[in-house]
């Protein structure tokens, strides 16, 4: 992210009446696991101390299928929205349904710190950490595996330039934290289970949605997942009270034969979102003709720095994940990715060290220009602590300790994030290139913003599904997301060209980011999520 910015910057209601829903929470101990969690039950607000080895099965049921909000997708971003809603005074009394077929949502699990780290990780920014602290989820992350890093080094395979970043440059203790996706999701789930908050998990998939007309004589419209055809008719229920009860609500039909109703449907169901498809929200997307290979590797020493080297086929990143482990995210062509995924472990280790060290070109060396720029930055008072830091050699990889996974890379952006009674967050609204690790941070930003917009709407008596309210969220997040997407896409294209003049421009960008203090601080603040716009705002 910081390298990307350096290149691009240098180169250019009424009070709501709650329908009482009575729910029960059953905690069923499983054999071979402990049968109690320190700190109380599902509604305890006390801090929960981590037991040595504990897993409990949690089953939540309701006596009514009517909810204020239905979140389709119980991944990290969907759970983050639920936690955010449970943390705001104006929204914590809402009834929220979470629809997801993942059985993990019905478990209380503490992940062991001494297990081998999973290959799927996220680099969360200080802004995301602050959000997790606000909603009470960071306490659970701290009790599981995570790795802060306070330094980052980015360099080009040509050896013409490099940039080092240090948290001290902006007066911070860290630049970010690398956390396994399963730890983030589990921490959000544990946090949500401890909230005194009306939530229901439906272990199923969404199959269709029916939008009830605000005027009963106009009938209903039904949309099926995977089927763009629609059917409508003028039908009134014989049970008048049931019709009034469900008036103005969206009906959601599930794969297990059950149905529920909600005032607002949130699509948090990923890049292939059924909610987005059913609602008819169009997207712009394209493939990058690249794939990312990810895995966990081991060193002989502990790694505390995030490393990224830009190669002709794409960047390779080495991210600390705790102890002597690091995570690899290596972008390359699709055929290359298949080859690297299937090669022997010894050959893969050699390929990684070749890519991070002596392959493709030399290490960057200090030059007369570097020494002049260093003196100039301090004379003008624009120096930062990392200005005087020289290029460092990343730690050698000794073993691959996880499965190697590969997935294609693409960009996608929804033209609209919202329609009447439907709104999109996270990958359902946008996907980006992983070169800066910003995808999940954008999603958490969506969750935070939507929860606040809903709270503001309730304060003035606005209906939860009213389009004008949802468009306020869209306006705020679309501007931030499109800006970040444009930066990452432009950077990906800039590094897809291997041409002498372009290489020199990239080297100049690295030097500018290394020695021009105000530029470096601006890049860091934006990448850390603490500044809204990338240009000295």
Walkthrough of the structure:
The protein has helices spanning 2-11, 76-87, 126-135, 138-142, 181-194, 240-246, 274-279, 334-342, 345-356, 368-379, 439-459, 467-494, 500-515, 517-527; strands at residues 23-29, 55-62, 66-72, 96-99, 107-109, 121-124, 147-149, 151-156, 162-166, 176-180, 199-202, 206-212, 220-224, 227-233, 250-254, 259-267, 283-298, 305-311, 314-322, 325-332, 399-400, 405-414, 418-419, 422-424, 430-431. The protein has 537 residues and is of the alpha+beta class. The strands form 4 sheets. Strands 3, 4, 11, 12, 13, 14, 15, 16, 23 and 24 form a 10-stranded mixed β-sheet that branches. Strands 8, 9, 17, 18, 19, 20, 21, 22 and 25 form a 9-stranded mixed β-sheet that branches. Strands 1-2-5 form a 3-stranded antiparallel β-sheet, covered by helices on one side. Mean pLDDT is 81; it is low at 7-55, 57-63, 215-220 and 225-244.
Q: Compute the CA-based radius of gyration.
A: 25 Å
Largest sheet: 10 strands, mixed
Shape: globular
Beta-strand residue percentage: 25-35%
Poorly predicted tracts of residues? 7-55, 57-63, 215-220, 225-244
Please report the distance between the alpha carbons of the first and last residues.
Answer: 17 Å
């Amino acid at each position: 992210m910081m390298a990307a910015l350096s290149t691009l910057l240098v180169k250019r209601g009424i009070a709501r009446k709650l329908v009482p829903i009575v729910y029960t929470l059953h905690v069923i101990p499983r054999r071979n696991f402990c049968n109690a969690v320190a700190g109380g039950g599902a509604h305890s607000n006390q801090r929960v101390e981590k037991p040595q080895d504990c897993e409990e099965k949690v089953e939540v049921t309701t006596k009514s299928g009517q909810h204020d909000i239905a979140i389709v997708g119980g991944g990290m971003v969907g759970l983050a929205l639920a936690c955010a809603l449970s943390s705001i005074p104006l929204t914590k009394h809402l009834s929220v349904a979470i629809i997801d077929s993942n059985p993990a949502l019905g478990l209380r699990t503490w992940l062991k710190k001494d297990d081998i780290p999973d290959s799927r990780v996220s680099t969360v920014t200080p802004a995301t950490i602050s959000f997790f602290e606000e909603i009470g989820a960071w306490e659970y992350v701290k009790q599981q595996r995570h790795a802060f890093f306070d330094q980052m080094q980015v360099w080009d395979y040509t050896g013409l330039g490099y940039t080092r970043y240090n948290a001290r440059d902006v007066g911070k203790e860290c630049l970010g934290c690398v956390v396994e996706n399963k730890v983030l999701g589990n921490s959000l789930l544990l946090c949500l289970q401890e909230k005194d908050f009306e939530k229901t998990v439906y272990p199923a998939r969404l199959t269709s949605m029916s939008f009830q007309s605000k005027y009963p004589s106009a009938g209903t419209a039904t949309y099926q997942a995977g089927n763009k055809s629609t059917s409508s008719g003028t039908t009134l229920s014989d049970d008048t009270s049931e019709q009034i009860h469900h008036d103005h609500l969206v009906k959601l039909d599930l794969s297990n034969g059950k149905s529920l109703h909600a005032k607002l449907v949130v699509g948090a169901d990923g890049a292939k979102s059924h909610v987005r498809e059913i609602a008819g929200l169009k997207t712009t997307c394209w493939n990058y003709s690249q794939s990312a290979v990810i895995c966990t590797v081991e060193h002989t020493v502990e790694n505390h720095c995030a490393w990224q080297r830009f190669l002709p086929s794409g960047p390779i990143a080495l991210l600390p994940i705790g102890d002597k482990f690091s995570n690899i995210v290596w972008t390359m062509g699709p055929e290359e990715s298949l080859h690297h995924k299937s090669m022997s472990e010894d050959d893969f280790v050699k390929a990684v060290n070749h890519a991070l060290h002596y392959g493709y070109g030399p290490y960057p060396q200090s030059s007369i220009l570097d020494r002049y720029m260093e003196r100039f930055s301090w004379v003008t008072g624009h120096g930062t602590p990392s200005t005087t830091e020289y290029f460092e050699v990343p730690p050698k990889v000794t073993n691959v300790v996880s499965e190697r996974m590969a997935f294609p890379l693409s960009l996608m952006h929804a033209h609209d994030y919202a329609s009447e009674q439907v709104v999109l967050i996270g990958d359902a609204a946008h996907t980006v290139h992983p070169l800066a690790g910003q995808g999940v941070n954008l999603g958490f930003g969506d969750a935070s913003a939507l929860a606040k917009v809903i709270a503001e709407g309730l304060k003035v008596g606005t209906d939860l599904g009213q389009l004008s309210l949802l468009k306020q969220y869209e306006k705020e997040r679309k501007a931030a997301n499109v800006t970040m997407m444009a930066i990452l896409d432009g950077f990906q294209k800039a590094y897809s060209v291997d041409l002498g003049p372009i290489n020199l421009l990239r080297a100049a960008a690295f030097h500018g980011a290394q020695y021009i203090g105000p530029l470096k601080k601006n890049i860091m603040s934006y990448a850390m999520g603490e500044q809204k716009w990338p240009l000295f705002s």
